Amino acid sequence: MTRKFILGFVLGGVVALAAVAVAGRLSSPVSAKEPGFSTQDYIDITNLYNAYTRITDMGGAEDGSNYASFFTPDGEFNTAKGPEALKKMVKNFHSGLQKNGWSSRHTYTGLVITPTPEGAKGSVYLLTFNVTAKPPFVDHSGVYEDWLVKTRQGWKWKKRVYRSSESFKPS
Description:
By secondary structure, the chain is α+β, with helices and mostly antiparallel strands. It is built from five helices and six strands. The chain has helices at residues 2-27, 30-33, 39-58, 65-68, 83-100; strands spanning 71-77, 80-81, 104-116, 119-130, 137-151, 154-165.
């Protein structure tokens, strides 16, 4: 009986220690578990997302090179692949804004960055406001799913996929 008691006590202790180890692993920051992925990487990727919204909204006066510079040379956004296609896409976007007489403000919420062996996976909600309207309103919304890589020039998008969703329209 003593032997069973000791064996049960030891096994119970092992199970308890395993549970504590698993709980500690689940609650610890991802960056601590990913070699080479630093706090600075999170900051740099967040800055990439923020700079992208500025160029997307205000970059209509140039040829689209600033926009294309956020992507790798073979980077893609939905069906546009490579620098020339990306430049054309953003120029068409700005032409459409001018034609329709309105300005946009892209706003991101809920950014999630997950380290991957290749770099990082990002996901973020998008709300695009028509700021020319009185009062301004959310014109459209959706979700970006992103694959990022770290280059000599910093973090870049390898691939972006945008999925549109219904926007709230007040009655």
